[in-house]
Amino acid sequence: MAHASIRTKNILNQFTLGCVAAMSSLPWWPVVPDLTAITVSLLAWLSLCLLRRWVIPGHGVFTGLLCGVFIASFTATAYSNNVATVKNTYGVNSTIVGKVDSLFTEDKSQKKFVLSVTELNGNPVNKLKLRLYWHNGKTVKQGEIWQFSVRLKPPNGRVNQAGFDSERYFVGKNLHGKGTVRSGTLLDGAVSYRQQFFHFVETYFNGKSYAAYLIALSFGDRSGLTAQDWSALKSSGLLHLMAISGLHIGLVFGLGWWIGRAVSCYCLMAN
Known about the structure:
Blueprint: H1 2-24, H2 35-51, H3 59-87, E1 93-100, E2 106-107, E3 110-120, E4 123-135, E5 145-153, H4 166-172, E6 177-188, H5 193-204, H6 211-219, H7 227-236, H8 246-270
Parallel strand pairs: 4-6
Antiparallel strand pairs: 1-3, 1-5, 2-3, 3-4, 5-6
């Protein structure tokens, strides 16, 4: 029984290693393999493993590699298809409908936000995300559903390799294009719970001297920090704290909560 458990654990470790290795290598693939061929190969290999016709050393790694290649190919193909959809509308005005994903959207004289698009020129789309810019536009909030008239273009990077690679950034954020808003109409004003909580904290601490710091650390919104605040942080050696977003603080809090809960449960069981 113990031997079978150890063997199963080793196979799972091999599978995980192969799957992670395959998915992590995606940026260096010269081409994305055909999804149909990968699917057929994976099903054939799994069938052979289930029938136990082929049991070779390291078959867990190979199974993980095939699954990783399938997942990476499926993800890359879906992303490329959505980028191609944006390319087909390049240079013309388009009408889109979607839900705002950004929590805060102020960026100097323009609104900058992410929109999860559900409809493009009257046609339904799936999992299409765009970075939109609205010069002197209305305030949009996370969770609201808007209809926009936009000019879209795909996420192209600059040729200068020493500069910021915007194309890599868009891929990392799973954004399929960007665009400029010409006009917008609010269809549904219901906002997300996170937006409501952000508004509550912003209103509750309004006027407090530490409000900008609290919001920057909790939500990652640094727009309230003045030049004097940044200077004070730099001179005190605390500038690095502003690089820590609310997500990181939330992860640390969650980890600490689970560790504390596990320790308390262990103490109760011990008593």
